[in-house]
Design a protein that fits this description.
Layout: E1 3-14, E2 17-28, E3 32-36, H1 43-51, E4 58-63, E5 66-67, E6 78-81, H2 93-104, H3 108-121, H4 137-149, E7 155-159, H5 167-184, E8 187-192, H6 195-201, E9 204-209, E10 212-217, H7 219-224, H8 229-234, E11 239-249, E12 252-257, E13 262-266, E14 276-281, E15 287-288, E16 297-308, E17 315-320, E18 327-330, E19 345-351, E20 356-359
Parallel strand pairs: 3-8, 3-9, 6-7, 7-8
Antiparallel strand pairs: 1-2, 1-4, 4-5, 9-10, 11-12, 11-14, 12-13, 14-20, 15-19, 16-17, 16-19, 17-18
Helix pairs in contact: 2-3, 2-4
């Protein structure tokens, strides 16, 4: 498989501040690669270095094997889409898309043919004569993408392009963008702080924190097998406890948390008794009032503080009986839990296979 983008040991310093620290990754031809992280983690600085708007302090950036160091933005086979789409309001859709081709000096007949072809690829056939202010938010998004794709870039860079859209349109555009990328086959490198966008659309996701990549993986592995505490906390919701290892046999451990409760959990590798750890557990891993006959569960009682109704994503907010820890417990859709009320005392449980545990000295 051809590598469209290769970033090796790239660092960016602004005087004493290191915005990007020795980042390396590769993006295969035709894939959707996302960089996910909180504001200020360095993801936009990294994207600007790939685009040529900022020069790296150290490291190498290659597109299809050719070094991009010293090559200006307009000479790189990339295009960049910002959150502000910067469409020209005085031009119609066709002229917006044709703008870059005219700047290149291409012939009028060829421009017409390319614009018509790209409008069809982004499902906007017949929209060429429409003004920008006649378009919906999603249609404007597709025009901005078409304006870049018509220039046939090797890599399309997208910097939080859905951030300005309302929630319902953003949800719709996540699916639209995924389908569009698969249809056109161009390599997308997508920047976002929204984990749902990254997980839904991407073939691979890099989770970035404080200028570094914490983990690069498939969306499924990021969610199910986080490699660092930051990834466990940032990707999806998690309940968290701090505690210490009481005993450990191979990768089966017992740990005691602050209120004295003892949990059984799996470890990636054995840890010495007394090791301080943080334990993470997904809300959907919590069982509500499980059958007493199910063996080997960590069982404890909680008080329901609130019922957070959100359709298929409804949850309980609860506290353990003798602790102030707030826990999220998912309400599965295959059973009715209408009988549960605020201030009810209920039993919850989870399997030792469901927990994810990290020693505190690891971070």
């Amino acid at each position: 498989m051809q590598i469209d983008l290769s970033v090796r040991e790239v660092t960016k310093k602004f005087e004493d501040f290191i915005a990007v620290k020795s980042v390396s990754f590769e993006v295969q031809d035709g894939s959707f690669f996302s960089i996910l992280g909180p504001s200020g983690c360095g993801k936009t600085t990294l994207l600007r270095m790939i685009a040529g708007l900022t020069e790296p302090t150290e490291g190498m950036i290659e597109i299809r094997g050719k070094s991009m160091l010293g090559i200006p933005p307009n000479k790189r086979p990339v295009n960049l889409i910002f959150q502000q789409l910067a469409l020209f309001p005085m031009m119609n859709v066709e002229d917006n898309i044709a703008f870059g081709l005219r700047r290149r000096g291409e012939k009028r007949t060829l421009i017409k043919k390319k614009v018509e072809a790209i409008l069809e690829r982004v499902d906007l056939t017949g929209f060429g004569d429409k003004k920008v202010d006649q378009l919906s938010g999603g249609q404007k998004q597709r025009v901005a993408i078409a304006r870049c794709l018509v220039l046939d870039p090797t890599v399309l860079l997208l910097d939080e392009p859905l951030g300005a859209l309302d929630l319902k349109l953003r949800e719709q555009m996540k699916v639209e963008l995924k389908k569009l990328q698969a249809k056109v086959g161009t390599t997308f490198v997508y920047i976002t702080h929204d984990q749902s966008e990254a997980l839904v659309m991407s073939d691979h996701v890099a989770v970035m924190n404080l200028g570094k990549f914490e983990q690069v993986d498939s969306p499924q592995n990021l969610y199910n097998n986080p490699q660092t505490p930051f990834v466990a906390q940032y990707v999806g919701d998690n309940n968290a406890w701090s505690g210490k290892i009481l005993r450990c046999v191979e990768t089966n451990a017992e740990l005691e948390i602050a209120d004295g409760t003892v949990f059984r959990t799996k470890l990636e590798k054995p840890l010495e008794p007394g090791t301080l750890v943080d334990l993470f557990l997904r809300p959907e891993a919590m069982l509500i009032q499980p059958d007493p006959g199910i063996p080997d569960l960590n069982r404890f009682e909680v008080v329901v503080k609130s019922i957070l109704f959100d359709g298929a994503n409804s949850r309980l907010l609860a506290n353990p009986l003798h602790a102030e820890t707030e826990l999220l417990v998912a309400l599965p859709q295959n059973r009715q839990y209408d009988y549960i009320q605020e201030n009810d005392k209920i039993e919850v449980a989870w399997s030792a296979q469901s927990g994810i545990c990290f020693p505190k000295n690891k971070y």
